[in-house]
Structure formats: C-alpha cells, structure tokens
Amino acid sequence: MSDNSPDHTPQWAMVIDLAKCVGCDTCTVSCKAENRTPPGVSYNVVLEMELGEFPNVQRYNVPRPCMQCDNPPCVQVCPVSATYKLDNGIVAIDHDRCIGCRYCITACPYGARSFDFGEDYSGEMLGFNDVQAPEYGVDRGPRRRALAPKGTVRKCTFCFHRLERGEEPACVETCIGDARYFGDLNDPNSVVSQLAKSPRAFRLKEELGTGPRVIYLN
Prior knowledge:
By secondary structure, this protein is of the alpha+beta class. It has one domain (12-217): 2-Layer Sandwich (Alpha-Beta Plaits). It contains 6 helices and 10 strands; from the N terminus they run E-H-E-E-H-E-E-H-E-E-H-H-E-H-E-E. It has a 4-stranded mixed sheet with strand order 8-1-10-9. Strands 2-3 form a two-stranded antiparallel sheet. It has a two-stranded antiparallel ribbon with strand order 4-5. Strand 4 and strand 5 form a beta hairpin.
C-alpha cells in the first residue's frame, strides 16, 4: 500500500526497458534543453552495446543517466563533502562547495559525471547565458564567468527541480518509446517497484556493490 503520509520520503528510482528503447536520443536532447547544460556536458547519453556471440548477437541501445547509487563511490572520494546522498535517494552536488578536483569523475564507474569548463552556446543560441536550470531547486540566475556551476562537476539529478513540482524527469516525459518508468521504489504499488522485481531486471555493474537506482529490463 502506498504511504501518502507527510513523513513519507519517496525513494526515487528509474526503470529503463531496453526492448523499447529505439536509440532516438530524445532523452539526451530533452535533458540538455531542460537542464541547459553547456557543450561537453550531457547528463543522459545513449550507449550502444552488443550482447552474445556470433552469430547470435543482439544490439541494445543503453541509456545512461546517473545511477544515483545507494553506495556511491563518488561520495567516498570527495575531499570536501561536496557530493552527498539525499534522503530521497538522489546523489547531489553542492556546487558552492565543489572545488573541481574531479576525483568523483575518476571514481564513478559509469562515466556519469562531467566537468563544467565554462563553455557555452552563446554563439549559437540567443540568450543561452541569460538563465540556468534551477538544479536542486536553486535558481542561480544568469550563467556568468564567476558563478557556479562553472568550474564544478555536474551530473543527472533525476531532474530534482521537476520532482519538487510534482513532475517527472524530462527524459521520462519525452521518451517516444515509453521505455522509461519513474517512481517510488519503496511503494509496492508503484510501477518501478513492480518492474524492479521482474526476472528481466538487472543493474549495470551490480557486482561492484554500488547499488544503482537505475534498473534495466533486458
């Protein structure tokens, strides 16, 4: 039964059905548009993977957001505690605390983190620097030289600012193949909770003990 009490904190998770993913990269584009990420920074990418041995080989498109690990290696290596786990399961970054050492980028086994070198699309997109996405619910105003998150590490947050408004992550909302599901993993009636128990369910590099909150269906 779903817990709708005021004290209940949802444990956010995402399920991605690889059989439905068509590799259209809509998730990548919608994520960049929603989070206004600069050149070289993409929170969502779609990787190509081949499984099996010739001639029985299958190719899969594997979307890769941040795994929001329950045991995140990135948190363990941060020397200033700038990256940490929220009560709702999302791994967050304090951009004002981050010193840009990039240890977390090296530690992440999924390649889900990027460094913001300060580049922008101002030469291609009118008004790109006028506004930033309100990551973690913080409106940082115009993207200017001395303002974070420039010079810090960035990553997928499950569109935390959208969750606060009662909306789904942008990649889930725009997926044309309906390959993504999002919800409370602790709610036994939620779709993600039920799909996570499917015999088709698996997690990337689960043997590392990271405990990813992104679950795939093969």
